[in-house]
Amino acid sequence: MSIDEIAEVVRCHGTPLLRAADEVDEVVDACATALRPHVLRVRGRGADLSARLDHLPSAVGLCRLRYGADVTISGIAPEQDEFIVALPVAGRARFDYGRATAVLGPGAMSVVSPYRPFTLEIGRDFDQVLMRLDRRRVEIAAAALIGAREATPVHFDLTTAQISPGLVGVIDAAARLAADPYVTQRMRLVIHAETLIVDALLLGYPSNLSRRLEGVAKSPSAERVSRAMEYMLVNLAEPLSLSDVARHCGVTLRSLQLGFRREVGMSPGEWLRNQRLERAHHQLSMADEAETTVTAVSVACGFLHLGDFAARFKQRFGESPSAVLRGARR
Length: 330
Description:
This protein is of the alpha+beta class. It has 13 helices and twelve strands. 40% of the residues are buried.
């Protein structure tokens, strides 16, 4: 999975809100609706816009955007209601947020937070995947991770060249689920995937909370670890957020991780994945090939990405999910 693959999913399956659009007001209206309100200025005499915007409907508002001209984007108000995650596909751009400045291109990543003025100097060849995250949702998730009682402001670094493969993988899964008409209740699954995106961003991208998230935490009792296991087993088919599990047990995510390391020698995410794999193997080995599919079992066991499921399944059991299904009841 890669940012290019995510971009292609959005382009192929998203709704084209703009195609070769050259009117500034039209472009601003479409981008403000899909992302956040802003001011757009085309740079250069006689320069014309040729904007394309594809939008994949989901709670995080995945978009692919290219202006086709040198433009400057700036905010309307000092504070906004959305975080904007930018994943460059091609070209170059300069992002200014508060006092921070970053030059972006493929292989980098940027998060424009909602608390300070921003200016984006975007080149005509700059092509990007954009993701909108609700400010309140991020702040509540941050509070849950650090054990705070109130929503907590999150000041992400403007850019990082160290992109978390896990974060990219979850974004990829959310995009593919949103685009897949054959997955039942897919928007429910997309919402769960987007919760994972927020957690992955908080845990895998530098911010003012990074040290607190990595800091010393009190290890919970064995009873709370057991409660977490029971909760995950009951909800094994759901694409659970580990921060939700921690909140259910009344501990921080860091504390939960320490408790699992102490009790079972692995992280809660590893333990949950192993339980899902065991259930998937059992279901496949007992299923009728004519009445089920590997994809159906994968989703039923909480795996959002079929390729990742197949690879982990074969690594654990020495054969592919399809091979186990074909050999079921024989």
